[in-house]
Amino acid sequence: MEPLPDGSNSNWAEPGIYEVAAGVYRIPLPLPNDALRAVNVYAVTDGSHLVLVDSGWALDEARRLLADALQGIGAELGDIREFLVTHVHRDHYTQAVALRREFGTKVALGKLEEPSLKASSEPERFPMHAQIGLLRQSGGDEVITALSRMFGESPRHTEAHLWEDPDEWLSSGRRVVLPGREFDVIHTPGHTNGHVVFLDDAAGLLFSGDHVLPHITPSIGFQPVPTKLPLSDYLDSLRLVREMPDQRMLPAHGPVTDSVHARIDELLEHHAQRLETMTAQVVSGASTAFQAATRMSWTRRERKLSEMDAFNQMLAVLETGAHLDVLASQGRLLVDEIDGVRHYKAT
């Protein structure tokens, strides 16, 4: 499998290996039964050393496709020196752990992912336990019922054995990646609390993980250990990256694009509009996050909440709650908790 120029295939998720820049290759790996379709893993090499940004989901097909792709640059799975992982979600982290067991590869992950990683490693823990609690606060019992039908009453974490600690907990700062090549590790909480992006300023590249994606808005705070105001964290993280010099954006899902600034501007505008829309829903009578979510449209297809599957209904209701909590923190809404459900009203 020979490397192709990146962008030579209109389908960004098509398996293969694509040259993004000198010594940097994009490798899409599959995400079965997931609307995202694929996750981009990036190989960074100087011809002698090999480091990967993110790893993919620990699936037999993903392992095979990664091995096939690396052959295109004369490398094997055992040649990977280290995985630099942007965040703790399974499509980014679990294959790194699986390959470490085979080859002793080092794994590095953001320090603030530690609580979520620990929670994920508990085999008896329902994977969406925290989200069920947040749905109850949102008045979303209907969604909880739908999730139970979709996943069963009490599914166990089938991948708990893959949530081992990394070899290194990453903090913000400059770090050697290859001899003569350094990345800046930048903490960007929001999508998860310990999410990091990697800046290769010498090459003009930003490995943006799920922090900035070209076609979709990342879910906010979808993690085993929730934080108080994940949307506020996310917006601050977007502004932090926007203040830095513009770079080519190497996202975890979707094609490489020329300007991370352009996409950040779109995301900030999107969330500003969402905040206004959700304020209007409360003013017009919606009391809970679930009620507000049912009155709104979702995705670029303008779908109603009832038209979505249970998992995406959950994401929509929790995103609504995250926006309403930011509005309450700004004093634009009032909030009271009654019998464990958060109720909002206009100031």
UniProtKB/TrEMBL annotation:
Q: What is this protein called?
A: Glyoxylase-like metal-dependent hydrolase (Beta-lactamase superfamily II)
Q: Name one GO molecular function term.
A: hydrolase activity
Q: Which organism is it from?
A: Amycolatopsis jiangsuensis
Where's the Metallo-beta-lactamase domain?
A: 38-253
- Lineage: superkingdom: Bacteria
Alphabetized, the UniProt keywords read: Hydrolase
Q: Does the keyword Hydrolase apply?
A: yes
Pfam families registered for this protein in UniProt: Lactamase_B
